[in-house]
Amino acid sequence: MPDVMKVFAEAHQLIASAQTEAEESQRLLADFLKTECELSATLAQIALDSFAAGHVDRARGTAAAAKEAHETVLRFRLRLKDGTREQIESILVALDPLMGKLAAIK
Predict the structure, then answer these.
(1) CB within 8 A of 69, min separation 6: which ones?
(2) Average pLDDT over all residues of the chain
(3) Are 72 and 46 in contact (CB under 8 A)?
(4) Which of 9, 36, 38, 59 is a plausible cystine mate for 50, CB 3.0–4.6 Å?
């Protein structure tokens, strides 16, 4: 018969390890999504500047990349826990006006 205390200790260690990995996964996802938000904003501004300068083809391509980064954030933000998700969603709210301006690029 296995030593109950040994099995309990191993189970406790596995749970602690899983919790640590889950927390690290949340942190990495949050960092990734913040970076995608920044990328989306940067690309959107470049697209708008290119469009204003008359470089329509370049603006379209850059706008598409900005939208893709933005959509990635929208898709993956729901995997975050509440507090971190709220941070990302507040960034998205601030980003919405800039993303809305991309509709002018056709």
Answers:
(1) 36, 37, 39, 40, 43
(2) 92
(3) no
(4) 59
